[in-house]
Amino acid sequence: MSEEAVTQAEEAVTQANGELVPERKKRRGGKRALILVAVLLGLLLVTAAGVAYAGYQYSEKYDGKILPGSTVAGVDVGGMTREEAITAVRAHTGQQLNREIDISYGKRSWTVTPKELGAHSDARSAVDAALNASDDTSFVQRTRMGVFGDELGFTREVAITYPRQGARGFIKGLAGSLNKDPVDASLDYSTGWLETIEGKKGRLVDQKASRASLLGALRGDSDEVEVTVKTLEPEVSADSFDQVLLVRIGENKLYLYDDGEITHSWDVAPGLPEYPTPTGVYTVTEKRYMPTWVNPSPDTWGASLPATIGPGIGNPLGLRAINWSAPAIRFHGTQAIDSLGYNASHGCVRMSNEDVIELYDLIEVGTPIVSTIVAPLKPYYGTSSAAVDPARVEDSSEPADTAADEQGND
């Protein structure tokens, strides 16, 4: 082979080797890239599987439970079951429901709790809301919670309901024990003499105001409530008896009390046993100056008497007449002064004209009159005939009617 041929052959080999080297390098680089991608994909798959598994484990851990980051009434209920959460929340709200409220009036007091009045919380519904919020989270959200520690972020306060009915019933019960009717002043004449009994004030619970105060304490922070009470004044006070007339039948005397003391007394003639003067408490209804006597029964026992007798000394009613609140009964003057000190009238109370004038000037309409029997009656029938002596029939009011009474008949 010539030298030229050898040289050409060497150049061809050199050229071929130069082309092969980069190709090999290229093949080696591609394999490495594939390996790297495969490794990365594997790592991603492993990581994804781990994350998915972590999410699965988190979901399993809190299955049927409230997720972390849940607060109800300030109580962390994360990780609790429904019943556990309700118990925990109720234990917290129970402090509010079972706190004691002192209710007082004067020296008397009562204690009650909101729960005893029917107050209750919505702990159950609040816990259910937390549980529902936990159930509504997606798998991705739970996975983030499990991997990155994210929380649910649920917050709910618990409402406490205070029924008005409970407060109303409680205050109504207090009112039943506290309410007291006022007692009017009165006259005690059980001994035959007068004693004024002072009246007593009553009280009435203002249920509306007291109920509002109680509800305010229940809904607020106050633990003390004062019952609102109105004072009731008696309709009749002791001042109503600053002047009183006392008729003592049997003793047959009339007494005038001023401010509880006897200041005047007079001999009188109350009714016969068959025409008794009424007993009890009455009042002066009318004062009659120089009354006219009108025959109350012109067709029967008064047939022989005049229809009327005008004012004057000969009038059967005397110079003054003072009507009682008892029908057809009055104090009045008389000329038959011999009957005074006895039971001699037909029900009225006779007085001498001088005495009845004095009484007329001392008292006012509305003055109380107490009439009571203190001794056996002393009947006096006189010696004159009533048919001819009007002075003897001055109080013959046995059949008198209201109209006659208004005209001054007696």
Question: Could you outline the blueprint of secondary structure elements for this entry?
Answer:
Layout: H1 3-61, E1 70-72, E2 75-76, H2 82-97, E3 101-105, E4 108-112, E5 120-121, H3 123-135, H4 139-148, E6 154-156, E7 160-161, H5 164-178, E8 186-188, E9 195-197, E10 202-205, H6 207-219, E11 224-226, E12 229-232, E13 243-249, E14 253-258, E15 261-267, E16 280-289, E17 293-294, E18 308-309, E19 320-324, E20 330-334, E21 349-352, H7 353-362, E22 368-373, H8 402-406
Parallel strand pairs: 1-6, 3-11, 13-22, 20-21
Antiparallel strand pairs: 1-2, 3-4, 5-7, 8-9, 10-12, 13-14, 14-15, 16-19, 16-22, 17-18, 19-20
Helix pairs in contact: 1-4, 2-3, 5-6
Structure explained in plain terms:
- The protein is of the alpha+beta class.
- The chain folds into three domains: 70-161, no CATH class; 164-238, no CATH class; 242-406, L,D-transpeptidase catalytic domain-like (Beta Barrel), CATH 2.40.440.10.
- 34% of the residues lie in helices and 23% in strands.
- It is built from eight helices and 22 strands.
- The strands form seven sheets. It has an eight-stranded mixed sheet with strand order 15-14-13-22-16-19-20-21.
- Helix 1 crosses helix 4 (139-148), helix 2 runs antiparallel to helix 3 and helix 5 (164-178) packs across helix 6.
- The longest helix is centred in the first third of the chain and has 59 residues, at 3-61.
- Mean pLDDT is 84; it is low at 384-410.
